[in-house]
Amino acid sequence: MTLSKASICLVVALGLSGCAAHSPDDVSIETTQQFAYRHDGPPALTLYTMVSNRSGSGAHSSIMINASQRVVFDPAGSVKHPAIAERGDVLYGITPQVADFYERAHARETYHVVIQRIEVSPEVAEMALRLAQDRGTVASAFCTNATSSLLSKLPGFEQIKPTFFPGNLQKQMSQVPGVTERKLFENDSDDKAEAIAAFKPEDARATSPSGEAHQGNK
């Protein structure tokens, strides 16, 4: 959700009082281990920023982490599917098909996705993974704050300042040396639930380990 600056103090107060370590709907640690997917590409971080096509304002931030396993830290996110295991706002089982599905579920007639990727050392990727797993469930409207706070703790990302605004984080990320950027536009229905319902779990689990999510502009 996009916040006005006047709303931040109220949001902070509500968020701090309502944030729990884990959601009752979280899967067990054992289930996350069953869903774990190791991608053979280089260690990398991929920042997703969902942007309104009408206003140009950012609406959501999340980050894919390719470390000893590939996950998406989707704080206060809304993508739920049987092909994905979720614990503490970390999504497990991010095969190439699931990564592609995740991107496209957010790109629709009203929003596009800005995708910023940077390769990092294995140590930095693993640190990002641990920070995401340790963060726990994030309160509503804190998606960008949680994502930017995670990035700001990583070596090489000290210039990232925690923020509540997706567009601000996107701009900060664009100034990190080595970041590449692409944008994903699609004309799907504004109802994200339709894209989620259309995704078939069997397609996600039958994956080639050497595959990769869609890389071209669309």
TrEMBL record:
It comes from Thalassococcus halodurans. Keywords: Signal. This is Lipoprotein. Residues 199-218 are annotated as: Disordered. Residues 1-21 form the signal peptide.
